[in-house]
């Protein structure tokens, strides 16, 4: 009699939101190198909000500084839509700004994994993926 191995877990769904196409491409490439992931990129925060219910990401990586709808407003709207996945804030701004955004995101009930300074590194992304894989 052979032992059945558990079915493989589905790839993590990750939604990247950043108005900079180069940053989106770089992040997507780094994530693809880290394993079986389903990565979707949105350069418009309004489009990303529309994508949330259909794509249902396990992880949302969001830039704080975007035109029209900045990262904080985006996260407030995601929380209003009962987004239940994990969140990583991404910003080239000062660490104190990232910390304030972290506090606000938690106050809105979001599950914040952490904040990353731009440009993110593969090692930092790998560490965050390790955290989320422990939760999913």
Descriptive tags:
136 residues, alpha/beta, Rossmann fold, 5 strands, 22% strand, Bact_response_regulator, Response regulator, CheY-like_superfamily, phosphoprotein
Q: Give the ordered list of helices and strands.
A: EHEHEHEHEH
Total strands: the figure is: 5
Q: What's the alpha carbon Rg, rounded to whole Å?
A: 15 Å
* Residue share in β-strands: 15-25%
Tally of discrete structural domains: 1
Number of helices: 5
Uncertain ranges: none
Trace the largest sheet across and list its strands.
2-1-3-4-5
CATH superfamily: Response regulator
The coarse overall form would be globular
Termini separation (Å)? 31 Å
Output the structural class.
Answer: alpha/beta
Major sheet size, sense and barrel closure: 5 strands, parallel
Average of the residue pLDDT scores: 87
The CATH architecture comes to: 3-Layer(aba) Sandwich
Would you tell me which CATH topology applies? Answer: Rossmann fold
Helix content: 40-55%
Q: Regarding CATH, which class?
A: Alpha Beta
In short:
InterPro entries: Bact_response_regulator, CheY-like_superfamily, Sig_transdc_resp-reg_receiver. With 136 residues, the protein is α/β, with parallel strands linked by helices.
